[in-house]
Amino acid sequence: MQPERTDPPAAPAAPTTRRGLRLPIAGPMLGLVLLCVVGTLLNSEFATPDNAMNVLTRTAFIGIIAVGMCFVIISGGIDLSVGSMAALIAGVTILLMNKLAPLGWPPVAVVMVGMSAAVLLGALFGLAHGLLITRGRIEPFIVTLGTLGIFRAYLTYFADGGALALDNNLADTYGPVYYGSLLGIPIPVWVFVLVAIAGAVLLNRTAFGRYVQAIGSNEQVARYAAVDVDRIKVLTYTLLGVCVGVATLLYVPRLGSASPTTGLLWELEAIAAVIVGGTALRGGAGSIGGTVIGAILLSVISNILNLTSIISVYLNAAVQGFVIIAVAFMQRRRP
Predict the structure, then answer these.
(1) What's the pLDDT tens digit per position in 82-102?
(2) How far apart are alpha carbons 96 and 100 in whole angstroms?
(3) Is the full-model pTM beyond 0.85?
(4) 75 closest CA partner among 271, 280, 332, 268
(5) How many CB atoms lie under 10 A from the CB of residue 23?
């Protein structure tokens, strides 16, 4: 008599209780509220609407990248190259638009091609990361540490050690993408909100999101549950690349140029936003809402340092580094 055949078990689902969803966000939210109170007490200009919009606009770039980084970290991965990737995407996008401008194309069409190229390049770079990690069996830390240097070196080469500047006519056409507003809210903030909503739906309401959390919780169990782990990992890195491309296309019109210092330490800020937002550094658990709050919280810290003289603004990166270490230490003490 042959043994009864059983179907493979379903992929383990992440906790979805109200309590499980709220607790990771409560800490960052409380910290953000306290920071806003402190900032208002230290400088009356902090609580003005203009300053609030400035903080949110500056948060948008890192926040969009952090949404993609959240998926990667939840799956148990990491990407150290997002800042260098953004720099190279910005440089290539500017070069492409400057090449198309003399061909007689309408400036709007050239800008649209450049924006599309930024997203496509981000997706291709993310896809390359995913394939190297899954097919090449190389640790994410090693892969992205290597591409961190590669991306920035190629931008430096293309710029001949200087800066790549966007054509003036194209800069005027492209400017509203960063400086424009809708209903009084800057365009980058709207894009950040849309990306965050899409990320939250993808993580919490789709099979892909459940698989990402299952892989981060226990990759071997996810494989036994018939989850295509390699495909999901490739998709998470591709998604992060798309987010980097979207953030970059919003950033280019801000200065209209790309240089070897473009995107410097963005990877630190993106990872910090995800970790501060309550995502477990070891993977398996996290939320887009917490990541958004974490990104805003870090921007508020920088803004307070800029408006006051508590410590030098040159220590912003040091503050973010201390925050990462402190939060990682507290996560280590969790059951």
Answers:
(1) 999 999 999 999 999 999 988
(2) 6
(3) yes
(4) 280
(5) 12
